[in-house]
Design a protein that fits this description.
The chain has 10 helices and 13 strands. It is of the alpha+beta class and about 290 residues long. α1 crosses α3.
């Protein structure tokens, strides 16, 4: 069956979808639209009409920390070439800031689906920004969560939506591009346990290892593991921590919650942060205790 390309794939339409990665408040702040009371679609139209695509893209990367994101942290061994990643097909720019090198990449991702009304296979193109920081002997790879809704773009009934690229594909692309540098997941257990011990964070959901099984402990309401189930907490921290949902207790971090898989070196931010650099600062705090 022939694939039908959707008219929504014009470049300006792709950039409109890219801008949906921002919350309404962040969109107003970074593009100076605070006086406007419109909803997100109208604000995005204002941004498209008042800025070049290059300026929009630069603004997205300058404010990447305001986006929802999956963060993958690697230790590395090897020499970093001055032109690292410049040959990557989706490389956009690089800069040095605060003693670290930052690489910006923009991955085109295609979501294919079957349109039941037109009886055709169709596709919509998305742009997914990825920001990579080199900090000391670590690479911090942050991938914007692609959660744009296909059904909201198309009035027709669609089924079987699938994307051609997942996080693992992006990570493999990065690993291939930095060879012969050797990458290994950064174990975040020490840093996470330190923040947990100091009650800067506490868990609302955690994996608990039993004698012959592993169960997930989900606390109800406002209950937290260390505060309300200290015996369970002491059991958990004896071993490497599995995937855990944390509430952030100290307001200065400007992040309400996150999910961490410390042994795999992964942190997930599925909630918009409150301030610029909030996600970056929290990652750096974890690493500073690691």
């Amino acid at each position: 069956m022939t694939m039908s390309r959707n008219p929504l794939n014009a470049k300006t339409e792709q950039y409109k979808r890219l801008l949906k990665a921002f919350s309404v408040n962040a969109l107003k702040t970074v593009f100076n639209l605070q006086e406007h009371k419109e909803r997100q679609p109208e604000l995005i139209n204002r941004v498209i009409e008042g800025n070049t695509l290059d300026i929009i893209l630069k603004t997205v990367f300058d404010n990447f920390s305001l986006l929802k994101q999956h963060v993958y942290i690697y230790d590395f061994r090897g020499t970093v070439a001055p032109n690292l990643l410049s040959g990557h097909p989706y490389f956009i720019s690089t800069e040095t800031s605060g003693g670290q090198q930052i690489f910006n990449l923009l991955f085109p991702i295609v979501v294919e689906f079957y349109n039941k009304d037109s009886k055709a296979e169709e596709a919509v193109d998305f742009l997914v920004p990825v920001q990579i920081r080199r900090k000391g002997t670590r690479f911090i790879v942050a991938i914007n969560i692609l959660e744009r809704d296909i059904a909201a773009l198309i009035d027709n009934k669609i089924v079987g939506a699938k994307r051609n690229m997942e996080d693992n594909d992006i990570l493999n692309s990065f690993a291939e591009s930095v060879r012969p540098i050797q990458l290994s997941p950064c174990d975040l257990n020490k840093g996470i346990k330190d923040l947990w011990d100091k009650e800067e964070i506490d868990a609302s959901k955690a994996k608990v290892t039993m004698a012959k099984s592993v169960r997930t402990e989900t606390l109800h309401g406002d209950f937290l593991l260390k505060r309300d189930l200290p015996a369970e907490y002491l059991k958990i921290i004896k071993d490497p921590i599995g995937r855990t949902t944390f509430e952030v207790l100290k307001q200065n971090h400007s992040v309400d919650a996150f999910v961490a898989d410390p042994t795999k070196g992964i942190v997930y931010f599925a909630i918009f942060p409150k301030q610029h650099m909030a996600t970056t600062d929290l990652i750096d705090l974890i690493l500073s205790k690691n």
